[in-house]
Design brief:
The protein is 65% helix and 9% strand. By secondary structure, the protein is an alpha/beta fold. It has a six-stranded antiparallel sheet. Strands 8-21-22-3-23-24 form a six-stranded mixed sheet. Strand 1 and strand 2 (25-31) form a beta hairpin. It is flat and about 180 Å long.
């Protein structure tokens, strides 16, 4: 349809309205004419709205929207009694003038269906006084863009408020009416339902086809297995036939050989009879020779016995000699180790002596150098000369006189330890406080004490070495005794182990047999893929590395009954492989490990954070065979959260019918259901069925825990069997332990002797250490006392000397001044200090020289060299002793070797005599046998024949048994006559087989390799191979248990698959057709809706601005429409937003009444611009507006009703506000005629007053 907004003139208008007996209008009334902008005015209750209803009625609006039924729309005056007061017919006629000036009369009449009082009323439509149907009437209205269904020309009283309060969904519904897209609504929903139904059918048929495909795969595997079974059965029969022929072939060969043997025996018997007579003659001669050999052998054996006795008597001496050699060797090693240590100590001593001598030479050189320096200082120490010396002498004499008493006391104190030294230039002697005698005494004591300490240190080293040797011996003896005790225990334990091993072995073998039987049964049902094995290994490693890993779901639970294994497997799906862990951290660590190890991904269920839905207890009361999956599992309570997450509210039942009922037949709520045959009904409606190739194997994983336990038990029992020793090993171990015990006893004896000697040595060292320690302790108090006395005397002498020096300094003041020194005494004492220093150095060197000399004397007095020589002598003695013992042992060995050679020679002679006697005896026996054979020849021949005949009978019986066995097993053996026995029943074949000589078999099929196995071992080996091969193939056939009808079933499944494919393709085609039809209707609905929405949305903002702009707000407000869903806008809401000038965004319900009215009017005017009707009838739209807004709306309507306005239209507005209707072109006044009780109208043209 064209957009009428672009027309520059009014396309048509309402000229007048004629009413007759309609509502409050009595009789016939002509209302009009109507101008471009006509205002209907009048007091309340005058009938203005009835005028609005009359226009709506004549334009086809339904009676329900006009506040009454058809009868109620007729005029009625309850106060009057005439026919005019209660008319039975009414009429409304609208005269419409089109743009070209042609008038069209639209009439709608209310008339009774009959003349009876209770007749119903009906509407009649007329165009230009001609009766037409509603469709014809409506089509004519549509030609003028008067859309009755959209009501795009009417705004009833209250419509403004309803538009302002309209929800987004209601607004969408309104737009569907305006746009006309509602005509597609019913078809849209019908096609959508068809599309969903077709898609569900396609999904169902796809699941069905998938199940059939899986069943086809299974039947194909069963078909191949059946064909394999038939082939293996044929191969087994062929193998048995070969085995029977091979046995019969060799039996026939043995029969032929046995017959030849009988002939050979008869010939041999004849030859033996001829030699029997010769043997009797030779017996007597041989007996004489045998007696001579016998006597000579007895004499030699007597000599051998005597010599062996002598040799055995010497054997203990040889053993003792070997033990002495071993003990001497060991002692020699100990002495050599000690000699090496002493030599090392002696070398250290020599090095120390050389060092001491070098130190002494250095000290001597230092002393000589110090003496030279002292003499030089004495020469240079002349400080005074001439008068100064005389004056110093005089003053020194006076000072000596004044300090005489103090000097006397000082002399008395230092009498015994005075060292007088000559001062330079002949000065007086002075006292030395720290005397040389005191120091030398202290040094002598210190040197002596140091020597004692060094000797003590040396003794401590010797004691340590001896103690170490003693401790080693103690440890060795204790270890030997311990080893001896352990060996004794081990020997008893070996005997006990030998007795217990047999019983334990029998017990373990029985256990292994039982467990392997159970394991074979479990293995037959269990199929483990390579992926499952790797996942199992990965989970095992995770449990070992991370303590928070509990294990896989299948490891942590057990299905209560085996029949539910498949159903539970299908219900859990991929969650079977999920791993339960403590928390998210453990799960992340496990994932990191799997990533690093490049292992297939796993799902982890952290107990701390997994969201598990609660179990619906109502599902436990559904009845029938239904059960919750979680109720079928047995697991630890702390894992409940994980299993609630895995299982949820999934149900298990027996049959598909019950599963379908539980899943979809329980009202609106749907459930996930699994059946015993592996069919799964999902909540979404999909069905998964059929027995997948690995489904049975996965279902068997619920028994993995028992399977692993059996494997572990078998491995444990086998390891225990391997750990058991046999009796021979126990006996050898017992003999070995006995020999080791004897050796340990002798070793302990020799070590006891060595330990006693070492203990005595330790006692001597301890005694010497005690003596030296006592001496050192006795010297220590004397040294301390002397040092204390010297220190006290030195302090007292120092005080007295200070007093004397004070007096001297006062006396020497004048000469000190002359010399320019502070104190001539100190000056001289400085020189004396140097001299004193020289003396101290000299004493120190003397002390060092004394220490070095004493150390040299001590080292020279040490007997280390003597001890080394003594030790070397001991070692030499031991070596000599060892050599002597070895020589004795060698001599004894040579003697024994000679004796043994002689004994061997005599033994060989005796053995030769015995061999000769035995040869003679053998010859005598052979001769006797030949003679007896001569007498028993007849009996021997008979026994031989009987024996040969028995062998022949046994072979014939064996042949008959084999033929009968082949007949019983229905094995066809080839015969020379070509008969296979195919037409004979089993009993006839067995009867024929008992007479085996009648059956001549064809052995041409027996291979050359099988013919060549003639010896017993080769036959036994080949028979074992035949039997093992037959048993293995029979076992494989027994395990297969194929479905022999699988071939027919496979063909039937293929036929079903073709049918399901055809159904699926047909369903896909239907779904595609439904989808195309639905999309076409959807697109048409979308295009129709969006055309109206785009037009209205584009114009609403401009209209709202026109209604709200003013001098204060020249830009006006803002309004816009937005879709909640742009893809399917007609299924969702339209959001209408209006923002008055200078107002921020608010929801529509938060606006004031006037703002809502203006916004609603803007929306109405915008809607009217889409497929606009030529006129617009509005009822009191200004009720909620203030004066300013009334003026703006009136101006907008006046502007839009001008002929020159874009999108101009005729407007008929009912209003009570003067500032609104003063803008109109004409007024239609409505008033009440109180005399007649009806409404009356007046028309007033205002254009006459426009200047």
């Amino acid at each position: 349809m064209s957009d009428q907004e672009d027309s520059s003139e009014v396309s048509g208008r309402v000229v007048r309205l004629e009413v007759e007996n309609f509502k409050s209008y009595r009789g016939f009334q002509n209302i009009g004419p109507f101008k471009n902008f006509t205002a209907v005015v009048g007091p309340n209750g005058s009938g203005k709205s009835n005028l609005m209803d009359a226009i709506s009625f004549v334009l086809g609006v339904k009676t329900a929207q006009l506040r009454g039924s058809l009868k109620e729309l007729l005029y009625s005056n309850s106060a009057g009694n005439s026919a005019e007061d209660r008319p039975r017919k009414g009429l409304v006629k609208l005269v419409y003038e089109s743009a070209d000036g042609v008038e069209t009369h639209f009439s709608r009449i209310i008339a009774p269906s009959s003349s009876s009082a209770d007749a119903t009323f009906q509407s009649q439509y007329k165009l230009n006084s001609k009766s037409v149907s509603w469709d014809g009437y409506n089509n004519q209205l549509k030609k003028y863009n008067i859309l009755v269904k959209a009501r795009n020309f009417l705004v009833f009283q209250g419509d403004i408020e309803s538009y302002a309060a309209m929800s987004p969904e209601d607004l969408t519904d309104r737009f569907e009416h305006i746009s006309g897209s509602e005509t597609y609504r019913k078809r849209y929903h019908e096609l959508e339902a068809q599309k969903l139904k077709a898609e569900e059918q396609t999904s169902f048929l796809f699941s069905k086809r998938k199940g059939v495909t899986q069943e086809k795969k299974q039947k194909k595997e069963q078909k191949e297995e059946a064909e394999k079974h038939v082939k293996m059965q044929e191969e087994l029969e062929e193998l048995k036939s070969t085995y029977f022929l091979w046995q019969l072939f060799h039996i026939d060969q043995d029969l032929a050989k046995a017959q030849q043997g009988m002939a050979k025996e008869q010939k041999a018997l004849e030859a033996a009879a001829r030699t029997g007579m010769v043997a009797d003659k030779e017996i007597a001669a041989k007996r004489k020779v045998q007696a001579g050999y016998h006597m000579e052998r007895i004499n030699l054996e007597r000599q051998l016995k005597r010599r062996r006795t002598d040799s055995e008597a010497k054997n203990p001496e040889v053993v003792a000699l070997k033990e002495d050699i071993r003990r001497t060797n060991k002692k020699l090693k100990v002495w050599e180790r000690e000699l090496e240590e002493r030599k090392k100590s002696l070398g250290d001593q020599h090095s120390k002596v050389a060092k001491l001598k070098a130190d002494l030479d250095k000290i001597t050189d230092a002393q000589r150098q110090l003496e030279g320096e002292m003499q030089q200082q004495q020469k240079e120490g002349q400080l005074l000369h001439g008068d100064q010396l005389a004056e110093f002498s005089r003053l020194e004499a006076e000072a000596s006189a004044k300090t005489s008493k103090a000097k006397t006391a000082l002399d008395t104190l230092a009498t015994t330890h005075q060292a007088r030294l000559t001062a330079p230039n002949g000065q007086k002697q002075r006292y030395v406080l720290c005397t040389q005698a005191d120091k030398e005494a202290l040094q002598d004591l210190q040197i002596t004490n140091d020597g004692l300490q060094e000797r003590l240190a040396q003794l401590e080293q010797d004691k340590g070495r001896a103690q170490w040797h003693h401790d080693e011996l103690v440890i060795s003896i204790n270890a030997g005794k311990k080893d001896l005790r352990e060996k004794t225990k081990e020997r008893g334990a070996a005997a006990d182990a030998n007795r217990k091993a047999g019983a334990q072995r029998d017990f373990l073998q029985k256990k292994v047999f039982d467990c392997e039987g159970s394991l074979a049964e479990a293995k037959a049902d269990r199929k483990e893929s390579e992926r499952d094995r790797k996942i199992h290994e990965a989970v095992t490693n995770l449990k070992r590395l991370f303590p928070g890993v509990h294990g896989q779901v299948t490891e942590l639970t057990k299905v209560s009954q085996r029949k539910y294994n498949v159903a539970v497997t299908v219900a859990l799906g991929k969650e079977m492989d999920s791993v339960v862990v403590d928390n998210d951290k453990t799960a992340k660590e496990c994932i990191q490990y799997l990533t690093e190890q490049r292992v297939a991904p796993l799902t982890f269920i952290p107990l701390s954070s997994v969201k598990a839905q609660p179990i619906n207890d109502r599902l436990r009361q559904l009845g029938g065979s239904s059960k919750l999956v979680i109720d079928l599992l047995q697991y630890e309570p702390h894992l409940d959260r994980a299993f609630r997450y895995v299982c949820g509210n999934t149900l298990v039942c027996d049959t598909m019918a019950e599963g379908k009922q539980l899943s979809w037949g329980q009202g609106p709520e749907r459930h996930k259901v699994a059946t015993l045959d592996g069919t799964l009904f999902a909540k979404a409606g999909s069905i998964t069925g059929g027995m997948a190739g690995n489904l049975a194997g996965r279902a068997q994983r619920w028994g993995d825990k028992e399977y692993e336990t059996l494997k572990k038990d078998v491995a444990d029992h086998r390891r225990q069997l391997e750990a058991l020793p046999d009796e021979r090993q126990c006996r050898q171990e017992e003999e070995r332990l006995t020999g080791e015990m004897q050796g340990l006893e002798k070793t302990c004896q020799y070590q006891d002797i060595d330990m006693k000697a070492t203990a005595e040595k330790l006692q001597k060292i301890d005694a010497e250490i005690a003596s030296l320690s006592k001496e050192a302790d006795e010297r220590a108090p004397g040294m301390a006392e002397l040092a204390g006395a010297v220190q006290a005397r030195q302090e007292k002498m120092a005080g007295m000397e200070d007093q004397i020096n004070t007096v001297k300094d006062s006396m020497y003041a004048s000469i000190s001044k002359q010399l320019g020194v502070s104190s001539v005494r100190e000056h001289l004492e400085g020189a004396m200090t140097k001299l004193d220093k020289f003396n101290k150095q000299k004493m120190a060197l003397a002390s060092q020289a004394s220490k070095v000399k004493q150390a040299l004397a001590y080292e020279g007095s040490s007997d280390a060299g003597k001890k080394v020589k003594e030790q070397e002598g001991e070692v030499a003695d031991l070596k000599a002793k060892l050599q002597k013992l070895e020589e004795q042992e060698a001599a004894g060995r040579q003697s024994r070797q000679a004796q043994e050679a002689d004994l061997e020679e005599k033994t060989r002679e005796a053995q030769e005599l015995q061999r000769q006697a035995q040869d003679v005896d053998t010859q005598v026996k052979e001769l006797k046998k030949a003679a007896s054979k001569h007498q028993q020849q007849g009996a021997a021949i008979k026994r031989t024949c009987n024996s040969q005949q028995a062998a022949l009978d046994a072979l014939n019986m064996r042949r008959a048994d084999l033929l009968a066995a082949a007949a019983m097993e229905q094995i066809q053996l080839p015969r020379e006559d070509g008969a296979e026995g195919e037409d004979m029943d089993t009993d006839d074949q067995v009867a024929q087989a008992t007479s085996s000589n009648q059956v001549q078999l064809d052995y041409s099929s027996v291979s050359r390799e099988h013919r060549s196995s003639s010896d017993g071992k080769a036959r036994e080996k080949l028979a074992g191979q035949f039997q093992a091969d037959i048993e293995e193939r029979s076992s494989l056939l027994a395990k297969l248990a194929p479905n022999l009808k699988a071939v027919e079933q496979y063909e039937a499944v293929k036929e079903r698959e073709r049918g399901s494919m055809e159904e699926l393709e047909e369903a896909k085609q239907q779904a595609q057709t439904a989808t195309h039809a639905f999309n076409a209707v959807r697109q048409a609905r979308f295009d129709t809706f969006m055309k109206a929405f785009s037009h209205i949305s584009a114009g609403i903002d401009r209209i709202f601005k026109d209604l709200t702009k003013s001098s204060v707000h020249p830009m006006g407000g803002q309004a816009y429409l937005s879709l909640e869903n742009s893809e399917d806008p007609f299924l969702h809401g339209i959001k209408f937003t209006a923002m008055p000038p200078s107002k921020r965004f608010r929801e529509m319900e938060q606006l004031s009444g006037g703002e809502k009215t203006v916004a609603a009017l803007a929306l109405l005017f915008a809607i009217h611009t889409y497929q606009p009707s030529p006129f617009f009838v509005l009822d009191e739209i200004d009720a909620a507006l203030d004066a300013n807004n009334v003026a703006r709306v009136a101006n907008y309507i006046r502007e839009k009703t001008r002929d020159t306005a874009q999108g101009a239209f005729q407007s008929i507005v009912i209003s009570l506000k003067d500032n609104f209707f003063e803008k109109a072109d004409a007024l239609v006044g409505v008033c009440r005629d109180s005399d007649l009780g009806c409404s009356a109208t007046l028309t007033f043209d205002l254009n006459r007053f426009v200047g």
